[in-house]
Amino acid sequence: MAGSTLATGRRTLTRLLAPLLCLALAACASAPLRGTGDLGVVIERASGSVQIVDNSHEQALARVQGLGDLSHASVVFSRDARYAYVFGRDGAISKVDLLTARLVKRVEQASNSIGGAISSDGRVIAAQNYSPGGVKLFDADSLALLASVPAAAGPNGQPSRVVGLADLPGKRFAYALFDADEIDVLDASTPTAPKVQRFQHIGKQPYDGLASGDGRYFIAGLYGEDGLALFDSWHSDAGVRRILAGYGRGRQALPVYKMPHLRGWSIAGDYAFLPAIGQHEVLVADNRSWAQVATVPVLGQPVFVMAEPGGRRVWVNFAFPDNDKVQVIDVPTRQVIKTLQPGRAILHMEFTPRGDAVWLSSRDDNKLVVIDTATLSQRRTLPALEPSGIFFTWRASRMGM
């Protein structure tokens, strides 16, 4: 009797465990477990797709399509670095699963947008819009709309275009209003009822912004005048002050072939390296006093000025007609030490997490170029469809990205 009961129990246990065993075997057969810390996303602007890439093995893993107009796309990552949120120029936000290479959800939230950010707790996605202007907040899990924050009107009476949106500590976002000459700070602690602090008359036509790595400072570049506007979040009562005023844009009226981008890690050591609009130079400012201390002559109009993670060198790409070149600046000497010509139309640069390599997108050669930062030599190329932005998942744990 006891033996019969034991046999019956074994048969029951086998029936219960069999489905779990099958699931486990199926999972093992479908895909090995892996982390996401060395993954990234490459924007393929013309085809509305993104490539998922592995920067450890320098290879492409998958392509995800159906993301719409990606002509000025940017990406932020979920707190666990599994999901990429892609902001398209057509106003859509696409949530992409990096592990399954699947488009999880896509929402069309505006007609013209140029990027966004994710809150410090990873729960709120903020999108900045050209049309109809303003900022919208979304739940990071479901992409459900939480709040719509209007922008102040510009001289034409229309809501201002929003630029430079960056996350700050404490579930806050800072951004600039191009048409209304403002910097606004949005507190999303209660995301369905956000609060906005406005700083008016900060300078003419702020065109882009960046937050410092510690989230203390937000800097907006000014297109309508020489200089930049600085907001110190530790002393918000002091308002916004002008820095690097009169750095020389008016010295020679040069056509601006492409608006420079401030976003990126342009702070290296004790100095901030910033593109000078319309000039063939990079501005260097002391990041304590924010006084200009030097300029570094470069071969063309800089677009991205990005410091290596270690801060020893700064890499610069350029507007047309010099957009086939990249220059490397040595920070201690403030001298250009290398000029590379890696491909036509170098639109973006992205460093690996600790800076052993930099990936470059060459739009007109349909390729990605991996450069060894120790030797400044080409390590590898990968095919891509008119690539532009490159975004690695280390951004998930950094502020202002």
Automatic annotation (TrEMBL):
Signal peptide: 1-31
Family annotation (CDD domains): 8prop_hemeD1_NirF
The name this protein goes by in its record: Heme d1 biosynthesis protein NirF
Keywords from the UniProt entry: Signal
Gene source species: Aquitalea magnusonii
SUPFAM superfamilies: C-terminal (heme d1) domain of cytochrome cd1-nitrite reductase
Pfam annotation, one family: Cytochrom_D1
Keyword Signal: yes
Keyword field contains Coiled coil: no
Alphabetized InterPro entries for the sequence: Cyt_cd1_C_sf, Haem_d1_sf, Host-pathogen_enzymatic-act
